[in-house]
Every structure is written in C-alpha cells, then in structure tokens.
Write a structure and sequence with these properties.
The chain has helices at 7-28, 33-42, 54-73, 82-101, 109-112, 114-123, 125-128, 131-135, 145-167. The protein has a domain at 52-167. The model is unreliable at 21-51 (pLDDT under 50). The protein is mainly alpha-helical. The chain starts with 6 loop residues before the first helix and ends with a helix. Helix 3 (54-73) packs across helix 9 (145-167), helix 4 packs across helix 6 and helix 6 packs across helix 9. The chain contains 9 helices and no strands.
Length: 168
C-alpha cells in the first residue's frame, strides 16, 4: 500500500530501495541486529524485497512479460484499445492472486478470491491510469516497450505484493 497517489514518488521510492539493497545484503551476512532492526523500521513504507525473494521476483517478471507488453501496446498513441487494456490488466491481477494463494493458474482467480483481485485492480490503477507520468509512456511517438515494461513491472509488482500482503 502506497502512502501517496503520486506515481513519480513511487518510482523515487523504488530507486531509493534499489540503493539500499546493498545495505540489506550486508545485513544478511552478519552486521549487528540492532542496525538491521533500525533499518527495517525505517523502511516500513516500502515493500522490501529480501535477497532470497529475488528469484521469485524474477520469475514474476518472466511470467508477466508478455501480458505487460500486450498491455502497453494496447495503450499506444492513436490506437488505444480499451478492451485489450482491461483484459491484460485483469490477466496481471489474476496472475498475482493465483501466485499468492497457490492456485494452479490465473484462470478464475478473481472468482476464488474476489476481494484480493478487486483490491489489486484498484490499487494498480494509480499506475495503469497514469502511464505517461508513472513510467514516462509517450502520448505521441513510438514507445520503447522493453524499457517501459521494466518500469511498469517494478511498480505493478510492488503494489500487487504489498496489497496482497496487507490483506493476508
């Protein structure tokens, strides 16, 4: 859950987290617990991804890559496809609900866990409703889909995981 409705602030916070990841890794290898506790307390507004979760995060990135690219292409200037936007947004929400609750696939995840699905959908609209300001999606011109997909994933994943963890 984000403390702000400003997507640019979320990007700034993610960049700050990335800078702190080296510190978090050092803490795992034996620095004092007092320092680790203070650092964790200072990061309560962030969804901290511990080193052991990097594999999980990368698996999510790989699994969502196609859907994210399709979602971004549905937003391309001059040919916005609202049906495709909705379909791919739901697909991404289904993936996170299915992953979090251990379902075999995303099909129908919203039916099994409608509250979680609805909450992810509404929380991620801070991102999906403001792609131009959130990730720099061009209103005109040809987007760099690979760069934008990476930014989109980072924010979507963080919001989805924080939302699910707050409901559990």
């Amino acid at each position: 859950m984000w403390q702000t409705s400003n997507p640019q602030k979320i990007i700034t916070e993610l960049n700050e987290l990335e800078n702190l990841s080296g510190t978090l890794l050092r803490l795992e290898t034996g620095e004092t617990r007092t320092h680790a506790t203070k650092l964790r307390l200072n990061l309560t507004n962030f969804a901290v991804i511990a080193p052991e979760n990097q594999l999980f995060k990368n698996a999510c990135r790989v699994a969502c890559n196609w859907a994210i690219h399709q979602y971004l292409q549905a937003n391309a200037g001059g040919c916005v496809d609202f049906a495709a936007k909705s379909t791919w947004h739901i697909e991404l929400c289904n993936f996170y609900v299915a992953t979090f609750y251990g379902l075999p696939d995303g099909f129908g995840a919203g039916s099994f866990y409608p509250e979680a699905h609805s909450k992810i959908h509404s929380e991620t609209q801070e991102l999906t409703g403001y792609l131009d300001t959130a990730i720099g999606f061009p209103i005109r011109g040809i987007p760099d889909y690979d760069q934008l997909a990476s930014k989109f994933f980072e924010i979507f994943h963080t919001i989805a995981m924080a939302t699910l963890e707050s409901q559990h």
